[in-house]
Design goal:
about 170 residues, 5 strands
């Protein structure tokens, strides 16, 4: 009887640990599915990991961009869960434009949120490296063409801030 009780407690402990680990695996699966979808031009697959209201526009935009843009490879640099409902992911992306042919490298930060059982990528910005088509610079990264005033602010403070879209 004591052996059965110990075995039952062991199974319950294992199940509890497994469920929290499964949450992380699901996030990892979503991150990989999104980035693999973009890499292999399976834009509908990638879009399924975005908020529903952004999916159609994402597929159209990526389809248009893919006429010259090639997502060659990616590497997950860092996955930082922030509680059970969101995460910050750093991705190193290798890419090139067919019209130029030079391999470029960009580090991006993706923000992921849990919505029910699904993880959605809700924001993606450039952290460092080459500027990449469709990837907005992070809030502290002016574009290469932006004039930078002393103190690091862009020269035109009245200019509207760019809004990051997930791609």
């Amino acid at each position: 009887m004591l052996v059965a009780l110990v075995a039952t407690l062991g199974l319950l402990t294992t199940a509890a640990c497994g469920s929290s680990q499964r949450t992380q695996e699901t996030l990892d699966e979503a991150i990989r599915a999104y980035n693999e979808g973009v890499r292999w031009q399976r834009f509908a697959v990638a879009a399924s990991h975005l908020p529903a209201t952004e999916r159609s526009a994402f597929v159209d935009e990526m389809d248009e961009r893919s006429k010259d843009f090639r997502y060659s490879d990616y590497e997950l640099v860092k996955v930082e869960p922030r509680g059970k409902e969101d995460a910050r992911v750093q991705v190193k992306i290798s890419w090139y434009l067919d019209s130029v042919g030079t391999l470029k490298e960009t580090h991006a930060v993706q923000t992921w949120e849990r919505h029910g059982k699904a993880w959605w990528m809700v924001d993606e910005t450039r952290l460092r490296g080459d500027e990449m088509p469709g990837l907005v610079n992070g809030p502290d990264k002016p574009s290469a063409g932006d004039a930078v005033a002393p103190g690091g602010d862009t020269a035109d403070p009245a200019a509207p801030a760019a809004t990051a879209t997930p791609h």
